[in-house]
Write a structure and sequence with these properties.
With 229 residues, this protein is α/β, with parallel strands linked by helices. The protein is 53% helix and 13% strand. The strands form two sheets. The protein has a four-stranded parallel sheet with strand order 5-4-6-7, with helices on both faces. Strands 2-1-3 form a three-stranded parallel sheet, with helices on both faces. Helix 8 runs antiparallel to helix 9.
């Protein structure tokens, strides 16, 4: 079993889900008392969120590169960044270490292709929905990507930072997300990418009529695949 290096804490709410899902999957496959070999470095999210808000992406990248180096030196065989948005600085991380990084968008795209879907709606932070680093990765892997209109992007972003990252699950927000998802479906989306690792805490597959691709779950399962291959 390879050792999974996890960069967590962004937010810890979803990082806890990563830890749970990875260990449950290892136990499901290997049985008995088996659990995952993993190292998690949980950062202070407030610091990284400040870098995001101020556009100091290089500082965020340097910060996470140091974290990745610690995991590399600690014996991790590969790295999982337990968040979508901070994949914006994956180049900083990859340059700093000698082990590979399992990209969340690549794992998600592969899962979507298994279902034969090409046009997807994308929900996430404003950075993930609006900037090129994430959408271009999906498009380069053969997907057509739709995002909500500006007002709804603001609702999604606010819900992530002011509710989900703080562990708040509000029924009114669930209804707002379901409305936004339906508009994406009406626009031609065949499936919906939950492109923030906290959204799966709010939206479940039974809440909508099209396939939901929870990036946290997909990423966690692919980490187990790589660990056990």
């Amino acid at each position: 079993m390879k050792t999974i290096g996890m960069i967590g804490g962004m937010s810890w709410e979803s990082s806890a889900e990563y830890y749970r899902m990875i260990n449950q999957e290892v136990k499901r496959r290997l049985g008995s008392l088996h659990s995952a070999k993993c190292l998690m470095y949980s950062v202070d999210f407030a610091e990284n969120q400040r870098y995001q808000a101020e556009g100091e992406w290089d500082k965020a990248g340097e910060n996470l590169a140091h974290v990745a180096q610690s995991l590399d030196k600690g014996g991790a065989d590969f790295i999982v960044i337990c968040t979508n948005t901070m994949h914006k600085v994956i180049d900083h991380i990859e340059r700093a270490i000698t082990i590979p990084v399992l990209h969340i968008a690549d794992a998600t795209t592969a899962r979507i292709h298994e279902d034969g879907i090409q046009k997807v709606g994308l929900l996430g932070t404003k950075y993930t929905m609006e900037q090129d680093f994430y959408r271009s990765r999906l498009e380069a892997n053969g997907l057509d990507v739709l995002v909500p209109e500006a007002g709804d992007r603001a609702i999604v972003n606010q819900t992530i930072y002011e509710e989900l990252c703080l562990g708040k699950i509000e029924p009114s927000s669930k209804e707002a997300f379901k409305r936004i998802i339906q508009q994406l479906v009406d626009g031609g989306a065949e499936g919906i990418i939950l492109g923030c690792t906290e959204i799966g805490l709010l939206i479940k597959p039974e809440d909508v009529d099209v396939p939901i691709y929870d990036t946290a779950h997909i990423h966690a399962i692919e980490a187990v695949n790589l660990s056990l291959e």
